[in-house]
Structures are given as structure tokens and as C-alpha cells.
């Protein structure tokens, strides 16, 4: 459970579980994950990697050059999630767990990760650009699906 919809509070049992836990396993470090969303230097331009969906992205954001520039620096899998309309989220279980792990009273939970972001993204990068082109096209056609 990463996040809950904005305006909805976490159940008390979530707070209790985090308080009682010793290790808490998260998927991977969010800051590391955010840094890995950028395409490696020297990558082919997305207009070449996503020939069907990139022109649609340019049409979707005709007056937002800053956003287009941001998107153009991402890996193809990151584009697919970025063109979906995000659900406004409130308190995040992961943020709460991390905050509790930094509290001085002991014994607080210890945060461990199931994988590194690089390991996770290696799987996404192993898919062909054609697959991501289809995924981005689907996301453009279904922007509210993430809700």
C-alpha cells in the first residue's frame, strides 16, 4: 500500500503495525528511483524510440515546452506513467514508515529494500521500445485509468 486517496486517513492499524514492526521492507528507495527515471546519457531521442506515441505527446502538450523537455529526458517506461492523470494522494504509508524509522526512541522499525531501483528498472529496460510505444499510446488513450 503506497498511498491512500487524498482526504482519507490511514487506518489506526497501519500506525500500530508500523510501531510494532522491527524491519519494514519497501520496494526500493524512492529518491534513487526518481533519479533512475532519466534515460542514460547518449540514449536515442524518444521521437525515434516511441515513433507512434511521441507525436501524440507533442500534440497533448503543445504549449508546455517545459513539460515536453522533461518528458524527453525520461526512459520510455517513465513516460507511460507520466501521461496518466495521477490520483491526488494523501498520507503515504511508506513516508510514515520512513519517518518512524528516523525517530530517536527505540526500538523503531528498520527500513530495508526488496531491490534497488536499478534492478527494478533493468526489467523495464529489457522490454522493447515497441512495447513501451504501445503502452504509452494506451496511457494516452486512457489517461484516467490510474484513478
What are the main properties of this structure?
147 residues; mainly alpha; two-stranded antiparallel ribbon; two-stranded parallel sheet; 9 helices; 10% strand
Please explain how this structure is put together.
- By secondary structure, the chain is mainly alpha-helical.
- α1 packs parallel to α7 (93-101) and α6 (76-82) packs parallel to α9.
- It has one domain (3-141).
- The longest helix is centred in the last third of the chain and has 13 residues, at 129-141.
- The model has no long low-confidence stretch (mean pLDDT 85).
- The chain is built from nine helices and four strands; from the N terminus they run βαβαααααβαβαα.
Total count of strands: 4
- What proportion strand? 5-15%
Q: Count of helices?
A: 9
Helix/strand structural class:
mainly alpha
Largest sheet: 2 strands, antiparallel
Q: Helical residue percent?
A: 40-55%
- The poorly predicted ranges are none
Strand ordering within the main sheet: 1-3
* SSE order, one letter for each helix or strand: EHEHHHHHEHEHH
Mean pLDDT: 85
Q: N-to-C terminal Cα separation, in Å?
A: 15 Å
Outline type: elongated
Quickly count the domains: 1
The value of Rg in angstroms is 18 Å
Amino acid at each position: 500500500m503506497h498511498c491512500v486517496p487524498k482526504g482519507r486517513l490511514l487506518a489506526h492499524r497501519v500506525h500500530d503495525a508500523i510501531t510494532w514492526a522491527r524491519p519494514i521492507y519497501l520496494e526500493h528507495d524512492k529518491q534513487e528511483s526518481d533519479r533512475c527515471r532519466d534515460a542514460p546519457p547518449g540514449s536515442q531521442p524518444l521521437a525515434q524510440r516511441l515513433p507512434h506515441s511521441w507525436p501524440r505527446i507533442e500534440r497533448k502538450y503543445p504549449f508546455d515546452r517545459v513539460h515536453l523537455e522533461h518528458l524527453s529526458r525520461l526512459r520510455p517506461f517513465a513516460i507511460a506513467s507520466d501521461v496518466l492523470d495521477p490520483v491526488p494522494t494523501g498520507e503515504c504509508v511508506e513516508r510514515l514508515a520512513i519517518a518512524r524509522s528516523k525517530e530517536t526512541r527505540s526500538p523503531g522499525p528498520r527500513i530495508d529494500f526488496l531491490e534497488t531501483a536499478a534492478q527494478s528498472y533493468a526489467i523495464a529496460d529489457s522490454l522493447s521500445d515497441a512495447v513501451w510505444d504501445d503502452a504509452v499510446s494506451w496511457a494516452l488513450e486512457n489517461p484516467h485509468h490510474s484513478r
